[in-house]
Amino acid sequence: MSFRNRIDLTKGDITKVKVDAIVNAANTSLLGGGGVDGAIHRAGGPEILNECRKIVARQGGCKTGEAVITTAGNLPARFVIHTVGPVWNGGDKGEEKKLTDCYRNSLQLAVDNKCSTIAFPNISTGVYRFPKAAAAQIAVHTVADFLDANETLGKVIFVCFDEESYELISKEMMLL
Question: pTM score > 0.70 for this model?
Answer without folding.
Answer: yes
